[in-house]
Design brief:
alpha+beta, five-stranded antiparallel sheet, 24 helices, single chain
């Protein structure tokens, strides 16, 4: 039954492409080429009278939410698309055909258990905007507050789940038969995307994301986030403060208001890196339809964001790895970039670090210190793909949202201010974050945070030393060095499950180092043990994420 449904869906996808005159996409695309045989089974009634961009947009709308989101993502990259196609796909950001107003009212009345006119002082039947998963109506609360009411599309979950099953089927084939399948990990990528897209179907979750982001930027003059009115929210309905501003894509209006475009572009970069590293909570759907500019003070414009269905977070390990890579790039330290990739396990252990360093330098050096207008993104992308293929670099599915968001941010930067120096703007944010994570204050704060565990480890220390000495006296103390166990220990350290061991070892080194400093005239052994002990304690701190 499952395979039959998938086959029928794939045939319906092909019918849509053929109907809109896009059958050349199948015959010209290597991965889809096997489907060309179905042309002999289906009537070919292609309509190629409309421009290609319009046909592509209409086909994506008809195919459903997952395809619309793909169109939204690539619409931000005008450097990669012809202008006419980019203009058409940009309409997918907030101008997807709406579903009927009577259906919207029925959903609301079913959710509230009463008439819409009893819930709201005013509810505008005409949609304000419509997208792939939901549409938005303007309304007024009984106390006079102007709000927007976001309503899920009827039947959207079923269509998404069906298309996800097809993506899994295609990913499974790619994983099994494609030569790059194991490295690119298509099944894991689809699984990561599945979590993201299904989370969007619960608008209570989106409201919670909005509230978190608002707290993170409370008092900031960089980004405004609307209030959520929880008493009116349901899993299929979200009610938020209505915000007013100029769409980020309306460059004519921004220029007419004498907006400081350069500052606006730089602030966008700062917002992104602040969310990713300082807050570890980032808006991951930053296409132009979700971003507005408030121009109360055009010289110091402020962003306003909407649509918080997709947000991302990173593990502390990924945060540190990415920040270190960015900073190494700013310093042109390609050897460190190569070493970080080796240490993280992203490339095979036997890779020659000098060869990887040379390959990274050849990709990065041509774009260093250049404004966006002088960087060929397509050329850089091809260089990165070639390097990844040559050195068998594994794709990291947990970073897919970050890649998507950076893709959007870079596209927005090109549109706003092509002379933007992306690296110069991001460098101070990253440098400050890194200092906060590994500087002296961070070590002191970490010691203070772990003081209870440190005390417990010190109390257990005599027993540990006694047990070790007894084993040594009886000849039962053994050290095993076989590779599988070393790998298991390495994995456990990455998950921070060896906390107590490191605290005990660190405590031993700290105590020993302190004693040596007291009784020994040569301080270096004592300082060495003391520093090593503090490092061990810092390594063994409990897992967690930065405060938000």
């Amino acid at each position: 039954m499952w395979r039959r449904k998938n086959l029928l869906r794939m045939l319906s996808i092909q019918r849509v492409l053929v109907r809109h005159g896009l059958d050349e996409l199948i015959t010209a695309t290597h991965f889809l080429r096997p489907l060309r045989f179905f042309f002999y089974l289906l009537p070919r009634k292609s309509d190629k009278s409309a421009p290609l961009g319009e046909r592509l947009r209409l086909a994506l709308i008809e195919l459903g939410p997952i395809f619309v989101k793909f169109g939204q993502a690539i619409s931000t990259r005008r450097d990669l698309l012809p202008t006419d196609i980019a203009d058409e796909l940009a309409q997918l950001q907030d101008r997807v055909p709406p579903f009927p107003s009577d259906e919207a009212v029925a959903i609301l009345e079913d959710a509230y258990g009463q008439s819409v006119d009893e819930v709201f002082a005013r509810f505008d039947r005409e949609p304000l905007a419509a997208a792939s998963i939901a549409q938005v109506h303007s309304a007024q609360l009984p106390d006079g507050t102007e709000v927007i009411v976001k309503i899920l599309r009827p039947g959207v979950r079923g269509r998404i789940e069906q298309d996800l099953s097809i993506l899994y089927a295609i990913a499974g084939l790619a994983d099994k038969y494609w030569e790059n399948g194991k490295r690119l990990r298509p099944l894991e990528l689809v699984a990561e995307y599945e979590k993201t897209i299904l989370d969007e179907l619960n608008l209570m979750r989106e409201g919670a994301n909005c509230s978190q982001l608002k707290r993170n930027f409370d008092g900031s003059d960089l980004l405004y986030v609307p209030d959520v009115y929880w008493d009116f929210c349901r899993p299929e309905v979200l009610v938020q403060e209505r915000i007013y501003g100029v769409p980020i894509s309306d460059m004519d209006a921004l220029r007419a208001a004498n907006t400081n475009i350069q500052l606006l572009a730089e602030n966008g970069v700062e917002i992104f890196f602040t969310q990713v590293f300082r807050h570890n909570f980032f808006h991951a759907d930053m296409h132009p339809g979700n971003i507005f500019v408030q121009l109360d003070n055009p010289e110091r414009p402020r962003y306003a964001a909407v649509d918080f269905g997709i947000v991302g977070t990173l593990s502390p390990t990924d945060q540190y790895f990415l920040a270190s890579n960015f900073l190494a790039f700013f310093d042109r330290d390609y050897h460190r970039i190569a070493k970080l990739h080796l240490d993280s396990g992203w490339v095979p252990a036997g890779t020659r670090i000098d060869e990887l360093e040379s390959a990274i330098r050849s990709v990065c050096e041509p774009i260093f210190n250049k404004p966006l207008s002088e960087i060929s993104f397509a050329q850089v992308l091809m260089g990165l793909f070639e390097t990844a293929r040559r050195f068998d670099i594994e794709i990291q599915p947990q970073l897919i949202l970050l890649h998507k968001t950076l893709f959007n941010i870079e596209g927005l930067g090109r549109e706003l201010y092509p002379e933007l120096d992306l690296w110069k703007t991001a460098h101070p944010v990253l440098r400050q974050w890194m200092q906060e994570q590994v500087g002296p204050k961070a070590i002191v704060d970490n010691l203070r945070e772990n003081l209870p565990q440190l005390r417990e480890a010190i109390r257990e220390l005599p027993g540990v030393i006694h047990a070790l000495s007894e084993q040594a006296r009886q000849g039962n103390l053994k050290v095993r060095m076989d590779a599988p166990e070393l790998q298991a220990i390495r994995e456990q350290l990455q998950r921070q499950q060896r906390q107590r061991f490191w605290l005990a070892a660190g405590s031993t080194a700290v105590i020993s180092g302190t004693l040596i400093l007291i009784v020994n005239s040569s301080p270096w052994p004592g300082w060495t043990l003391l520093v090593a002990g503090l490092a061990a304690i810092f390594t063994g701190r409990p897992a967690g994420t930065p405060s938000r």
